[in-house]
Design brief:
about 180 residues; mainly alpha; 9 helices
Amino acid sequence: MTDRILVQCAKLGSRKAADELFERYYREIYAYIFKQCRDKELAMDLTQDTFVAAFRGIRSFNENKSGFRTWLYRVASNKITDYYRSRIFHRRSFDISLDETPEFSDDTDILEQLTERDTVRQIMEIISQFDAERIQIFRKKIFEEQTFSQIAQDLSLPESTIKTRYYSMIRKIKKELSQ
C-alpha cells in the first residue's frame, strides 16, 4: 500500500494503517534523530514522541502540501528543536556525573577537555535562545551538513534568507562567547 492510502486509513482511525506507517519509517526517523543528538536513549524517546505527535495530528496532515515522509521529518525536527529549547536539556547539560568525567593523562588534557566541554555547553545555551526556525537552520547546517540551498528548499525560504539568518547567529554566538 502507498503512504497516501495508509494515511487516509489512519485518518479514519485504522490502527493497522498507523502501525504500517510506523514500521515503514521508524528506523529512518530514529537514525535522523540519533544523528542530531548522539544519544541512543534520547533518540528513542524523541522518535517515540515524533510518532505520537504525528499520529495525534494526522488529521491535520495535508497531502497536497507534502508527502507523509517529509511531514514526518518536519515533526521530528520540531521535536528535536523542542528538546534543545527545553529545561530538561539545560538541566542535563549542566549535570555532569563523576561517571561521565573522562580520564585525563595530564593537567593540559584536563584544561583542554573542560574548556571544550564548557564551550559546547555555552554554545548550546546561546542557540536555545533563538526561535525554532533559526535553531533548525543551525542544526541542519552543522549537524546534518546540509548546503544552504538544501536548507532553503526544506524550509521553503529563499537561500539568501537562510544565509543571513545563519551568519547572524554565528556572529551572535561569537559575540556572546567572547564576553
